[in-house]
Amino acid sequence: MTLESFQLVKILILTTLAFLAAFFWTPGFIKALNALGVGKTIRSASDAPIFAKLHAKKHGTPTMGGVVIWVTVLAIALAFAGVSLVLPDTIFASFNFLTRSQTWLPLGALVASAIVGLVDDYFNAKRIGPHGGGLRVRHRLLIYTAIALIGAWWFAVKLGWDFLHVPFLGNQIIGLWYIPFFVLTIAATAFSVNETDGLDGLAGGTLFIAFGAYAIIAFAQGKYDLAAFCGVVIGALLAFLWFNIHPARFFMGDTGSMSLGVTLGIIAMLTNSALLLPIIGFVFVLESLSVLLQIFWKKALHRKLLLSSPFHHHLEAVGWPEPQIVMRLWVVALVSGALGVAIALLDALS
């Protein structure tokens, strides 16, 4: 068996293991969330009349479902890292994918931002914060930026990166501009994924596609541990989706969308393919732009551009059924993800 063949088998096994592990403990976790009463708080009709009308039936549905994803990823990463220390000469040790150069940073960012998101979800469930809805958008952006600054320091100081890869043009030295670009990438991705998390299965499905695309790119670059990390995230996401597809038994919450958005941005930087992220994550871009344009229209022109934002809520408002919106945006995500991977592979051949 060649090295590439073994690494592919390793990734497939880890992905399957992550799915089975997450699938096994999710039902009990959902019961615990229901018992704790940490349900989603839907904004009042006075704050968002269209949204409140469309989603009134979802009030009280457990949130914090993203815990299933990041806890599973963390547990599997630590388990195989431990096995590699205790049983270094066994086949099981070769399944360790926790390495300083490839996966320490994305795993650390995943867990750190997930804990922050968990606090925000708790605030929302207990109606703490402005209008009982948890943290304000600007506060979330500040948190994303703080996490991104730590990541930028890691890349610049620990890894010595000061260049950006431009498809078909090669690596371009950008010096100190690397840090603000890194921060912008992470903050924008986290914000965009967070805004996408608004319909049953939407964020989970589009994230599954995006991480799948970057798993292929990482594998093609020989970053096998990073590809394995993406595979474990994908497996956990698939288990989450089983329970989150319409009608959802629980929601991802900020503990999932915030952490996975930050992590996706970091993986884009680690594969030096951040300029492909707007293509691979086109749905995320569409959703966040709709929010920003809606805010601008209301501030500058004193009227709405969309009936409701993000864009998926506008589609709901004009009469599209929720499952139809989700599946059609999955299709868009698949096409854009495939295009991003194709560009990355063609660039590698040029």
Kindly describe this structure.
This protein is mainly α. It has helices at 3-36, 49-55, 67-86, 104-125, 137-158, 178-196, 202-220, 224-244, 254-270, 277-280, 282-301, 311-317, 322-349, and strands spanning 163-166, 170-173. The chain has a domain at 3-197 and 225-273. The protein has 13 helices and 2 strands. It has a two-stranded antiparallel sheet. Strand 1 and strand 2 form a beta hairpin. The two termini are 28 Å apart. The model has no long low-confidence stretch (mean pLDDT 89).
Mean pLDDT: 89
Query: Largest sheet, if any?
Result: 2 strands, antiparallel
Approximately how much helix is present in the residues? 55-70%
Rg for CA atoms: 20 Å
Q: Span between N and C termini?
A: 28 Å
Any idea what the shape is? globular
List the strand order in the largest sheet: 1-2
How large is the share of residues in beta strands?
Answer: under 5%
Question: What are the low-pLDDT stretches, counting only 5+ consecutive residues below 50?
Answer: none
Number of helices: 13
Task: Tell how many strands the DSSP assignment holds.
Answer: 2
Helix-strand category: mainly alpha
Summarize the structure.
This protein is mainly alpha-helical and 350 residues long. The chain is built from 13 helices and 2 strands.
